[in-house]
Amino acid sequence: MAVCIAVIAKENYPLYIRSIPTENELKFHYTVHTSLDVVDEKISAMGKALVDQRELYLGLLYPTEDYKVYGYVTNSKVKFVMVVDSSNTALRDNEIRSMFRKLHNSYTDIMCNPFYNPGDRIHSRAFDNMVNSMMMQVC
């Protein structure tokens, strides 16, 4: 099950972070921010190939004992990070990829809102509902 979903701005500050067990929220913030170094390494390693292939999904960033951390980056360098419980073996790479596409589409809807200032924290009921449904869908 997905336990944390985060949207990180180009300048590496959080636009949105949601985690299911709220008592471990600080731990998930730390996990998301430590994964940003791996995201930057993967982006620089791909270099020009990232633009050529239009492959935005970065795959598994790193596994821990309890969680697996996956990454996705948009063309505008906004990063999506998803922390998944390691005990969920039914979750496949294609399902993670489709979840990131849904998240990216919902983020695009927010960016198209004329009242949203790019770079502000995301406060959208529709985005919250989509993230909650993704977390419950995986459970």
Description:
- This protein has 139 residues and is α+β, with helices and mostly antiparallel strands.
- It has a single domain, classed as Beta-Lactamase.
- It contains four helices and five strands.
- Strands 2-1-5-4-3 form a five-stranded antiparallel sheet, sandwiched between helices.
- Strand 3 and strand 4 form a beta hairpin.
- The chain is globular.
- The mean pLDDT is 86.
| Termini gap | 5 Å
- The secondary-structure class comes to alpha+beta
CATH class: Alpha Beta
At CATH's second level, what is the architecture? Answer: 2-Layer Sandwich
Write the layout of secondary structure elements.
Elements: E1 2-8, E2 14-19, H1 25-46, H2 48-53, E3 57-63, E4 67-73, E5 79-85, H3 93-111, H4 125-138
Helix pairs in contact: 3-4
Short description:
The chain is an alpha+beta fold. The protein is 44% helix and 24% strand. Strands 2-1-5-4-3 form a five-stranded antiparallel β-sheet, with helices on both faces.
Key terms for this structure?
single chain, 139 residues, alpha+beta, Beta-Lactamase, five-stranded antiparallel sheet, 5 strands, 44% helix, 24% strand, globular
